[in-house]
Amino acid sequence: MPAAPAPVQRAVVGPGAVAAVPAEAEAICGIPASELDTLLVVGPGFDTRPWAERLVAALRPLPIRRYVQPGPATPAGVLRLARLLRDDRPGIVLAVGGGTVLDTVKAAVALQPYPDLDERDVARGCDDPEPRRRWRTGVCTRPAVVAVPSTPGTGAEATPFATLWDTAGGRKLSLTGPELLPGAVILDPDLLVGLDRTVLVGAVLDTICQGAEAAWSIRSTPASTAFGLTALGTAAGVLDRLVAGRLDDAGRLALLLAGHHSGRAIAAAPTSSCHAISYPLTLWLGLAHGHACGVSLPRLLRHNADVTTADCADPRGVRHVRAVVDRIAVALAADAVPGTGGTVAARAGTVAARAGAAAARVERLLAGAGLAPLDELPVDAHDLAVEALNYPRCHDNPRRLDVPVLRRLLGTPLGLEESCS
């Protein structure tokens, strides 16, 4: 069944939006900012960001302590922060950073009331919600969370779940529940200043994959499709400026909004095949998340556009799948041709041709940022297919995938996937 719609969040959007954090904290907690004990959680590079001093100054009415999240969001790291929250009991937590920081805070706040957990408990609670019903609850009130993304793309500020990495077990985990949704989100494009092109391209690849997968998934809903297509169209309008290194304030805001909409999309329907393929690539090769997602998107776009009655996995049928893939392709091709807005080029030819044009644009994005394509990664296609299919969401792809099909798809040079079906 599709996930329930996420509750409505408070949101402040635009340049300088971080100045609204104290007022938002007061509104959420009903306590004057000067009396609101606040924990600021940041990543290890926070002090090097060009806006860090300005952000700290904007928060000054709040009595702030700082906590640095040192690495990936792991069960151990989440439990460490949860213990701190239980001991110090802040009224509000400000999560300022990328998806790692936001997911760590969301998970730690969700787990704060449970004093007896170890890493295995957390892993089991991610795999199956049933064990969570038996966790002993302590006397503890969760703090409110304000999410302030300083990278675009993940949409973590808009989702009721957190991605955790079980590095010892070699698995990606997801902790899910309404208590993981932040109470407020601040989208300030000034916080993207200073990010290099490779980081921004990786972020937009995550956005694009989330938007596409939430639209084409067999679990898609009208909401996930609408948010996904909005994310794709908003991101597509910025791609050429991003690759050329001409990103301005409006472009940075577009990237933040696209990422936020992609988060809203996957809150309504989870990601599917590109993300399932990305997890082993990140665990095995250390690939950044957006890069790991984006390398398979061109192949899956072409593959899904050629869906047939014999291999359609979506109960809504071939016509539905092709129509959605077509809408994804048209959205991705928007603004690709200077002077036309991409409209004529995007709508010419067949669904497969439009999907091929959109796939080629993603390939150019990877190349323009110097990110290795799939066929240059040192990974065995069979092993990658087997591991990806171990994640249930891989089977949410609208065209049926099994080990032989996915192995051929991942091992075939781009542009030749149609011979694999």
From TrEMBL:
This is Alcohol dehydrogenase class IV. Residues 204-383 form the Fe-containing alcohol dehydrogenase-like C-terminal domain. Residues 10-189 form the Alcohol dehydrogenase iron-type/glycerol dehydrogenase GldA domain. The keyword Nucleotidyltransferase does not apply. GO terms for molecular function: alcohol dehydrogenase (NAD+) activity; metal ion binding. It comes from Plantactinospora soyae. Gene3D superfamilies: 3.40.50.1970, Dehydroquinate synthase-like - alpha domain. Keywords: Oxidoreductase.
